[in-house]
UniProtKB/TrEMBL annotation:
Active site: E222, C257
Entry GO CC: cytoplasm
Protein name per the record: Aldehyde dehydrogenase
Alphabetical list of InterPro entries matching this protein: Ald_DH/histidinol_DH (IPR016161), Ald_DH_C (IPR016163), Ald_DH_CS_GLU (IPR029510), Ald_DH_N (IPR016162), Aldehyde_DH_dom (IPR015590), Aldehyde_DH_NAD(P) (IPR012394)
Swiss-Prot/TrEMBL keywords: NAD, Oxidoreductase
Pfam families in the record: Aldedh
Gene Ontology terms, MF aspect: aldehyde dehydrogenase (NAD+) activity
Length: 468
């Protein structure tokens, strides 16, 4: 459904084609290229967020029972911050970058000009449905593109709110929303785009990349993975535990792409860590966490059943040391810690994306690096340690989208760091200037004058010319 229709209609490939054609005409007339247009749309995103904050909270609560504090800090504030950075830096980002030239082109000058790619598609996921939809759109607009946003159908309240708000506040001749699921996304994917920015799982990412390859369309794929936390024994355990909890259960109840997926610690230290997790979890969420208003629910019954299956696996029977409570009617699962789960259990062989946290144990903490490197490259990896050498080894040997030493998930909030995966966890990156670059072509421009012709460039090639 297109945003400006504001009602549910089947969106097929013919409509998708018409929409892309219309956007291409608008893009070609140059409207989206001007600095003023980009600024006006970015300001409108801030305005739509500020004027509809309550509606956004309600939608996020309806989709995920996300509490207001999390919704504010992790979606609204982050989105506004992204927008403010783009507003502040846009002139600078758009300014051509002067670069050195070579003796072969003397005399000359050169610059790199950032130009918009054209008409781009953003396909978003359900877990941070407001932020993950609009954050790439900010970059697409800042870079001067026309854009179609396809929010996730799994967060339907936020999806329809986005369609309404973008319809009401933004320039619909250049920015459109298509709501829908597989059929609508497939119709969009059949079209020729100048960039596709996809957030979601690796299975669909392969469908997106295959569709993009038909038109040689470049892609950004923001995916997930099993993000590990290494916990050494020489740390401030209370601080580390609280930071692990904030990154796991304080981030959408574990339904976040960079949530800690599992912990690795030493056999000797594990009991202390488990005790600390129990103490802090009880302080945060009380004795009956299923009743806590500060924990999001599981998004839907498919994901609830998927997580239940991970707990029902015979291989993890008896391994729960904290939590494990469920309420299917409310789609709630309490924070759950499992100790010494086997490496071949189901829970260790897929991204958990929920409130379950297994702990693996090793004899020596250095062995944890081999455990991590034996799997796919994760989106994030974390270590808590006070040992300089271990920090250095971690940074040098662990390949992941991003690393954090002595905390979890916060690299996401540093707009000067690229956010994206490597290998199975993704292709490309965004945030801050990296989002602008993800939606720009860096055009190489060389300026020459009519002097400075080396005779050796032109035939007949003679030894005399070679010496000149
Ligand atoms: P999802 O189910 O919302 O799917 C993402 C998008 O893909 C949706 O818009 C959906 O309509 C579309 N889609 C689904 N099936 C499709 C198909 N067959 N063909 C075409 N399009 C299709 O989200 P999800 O995949 O469950 O999201 C969770 C995953 O996303 C996790 O792996 C998580 O780690 C990852 N994730 C990554 C980031 C990041 O920034 N790297 C952020 C959030 C989530």
């Amino acid at each position: 459904m297109a945003s400006n229709t504001k009602s549910k209609v089947l969106f097929d490939s013919e409509e998708a084609l018409m929409m892309v054609k219309e956007l291409r005409v608008t893009f070609d007339c140059g409207k989206t290229r001007s600095y003023e247009w980009r600024i006006s749309q970015l300001k409108a995103i801030i305005k739509l967020t500020e004027e509809n904050e309550q509606e956004i909270y309600q939608a996020l609560h309806s989709d995920l029972s996300k509490c207001e504090t999390e919704a504010f800090v992790q979606e609204i504030a982050m989105l506004k911050n992204s927008c403010r950075i783009a507003l502040k830096e846009l002139k600078h980002w758009m300014t051509p970058e002067k670069v050195k030239t070579s003796i072969a082109t003397f005399p000359s000058s050169a610059e790199i000009v950032s130009e918009p790619l054209g008409v781009v598609l953003v396909i978003s996921a359900w877990n941070y449905p407001f932020l993950l939809s609009l954050d790439p759109v900010i970059g697409a607009i800042a870079a001067g593109n026309a854009v179609v946003l396809k929010p996730s159908e799994i967060a339907p309240a936020t999806s329809s709110l986005l369609a309404k708000l973008l319809g009401d506040y933004l320039d619909n001749s250049c920015i459109k929303v298509v709501e829908g699921a597989v059929d609508e996304t497939s119709a969009l994917l059949q079209q020729k785009w100048d960039k596709i920015f996809y957030t979601g799982n690796g299975r669909v990412a392969r469908i997106v990349m295959a569709a993009a390859s038909k038109h040689l369309t470049p892609v950004v794929l923001e995916l997930g993975g099993k993000s590990p936390v290494v916990v050494d024994s020489n740390i401030n355990l209370k601080v580390a535990t609280r930071r692990i909890i904030a990154g796991k259960w304080g981030s959408n109840n574990g339904q976040a792409c960079i949530s800690p997926d599992y912990i690795i610690t030493t056999k000797d230290y594990a009991p202390k860590l488990v005790d600390a997790l129990k103490t802090e979890l009880e302080k945060f969420y009380g004795k009956n966490p299923l009743e806590s208003k500060d924990l999001s629910r599981i998004v839907n019954s498919n994901h609830f059943n998927r997580l239940t299956k991970l707990l029902d696996d015979d291989k993890v029977s008896g391994k729960i040391v904290y939590g494990g409570e469920k309420d299917e009617s409310k789609l709630k699962i309490s924070p759950t810690v499992l100790l010494d789960v086997p490496r071949d259990s189901l829970i260790m062989n897929e991204e958990i994306f929920g409130p379950l946290l297994p702990i693996l144990t090793v004899d020596k903490i250095e062995e944890s690096f081999d455990v991590i490197n034996s799997g796919s490259k994760p989106l994030a990896a974390y270590i808590f340690t006070n040992t300089k050498k271990l920090k250095e080894q971690f940074v040098m040997t662990i390949s992941a989208g991003g690393l954090v030493v002595n905390d979890t998930t916060l690299h996401l909030a540093v707009h000067t760091l690229p956010f994206g995966g490597v290998g199975e966890s993704g292709v490309g990156a965004y945030h801050g200037k990296f989002t602008f670059e993800a939606f720009s072509h860096k055009k190489a421009v060389l300026y020459r004058r009519f002097i400075g012709d080396a005779p050796v460039r032109y035939p007949p090639y003679t030894n005399t010319k070679m010496r000149l």
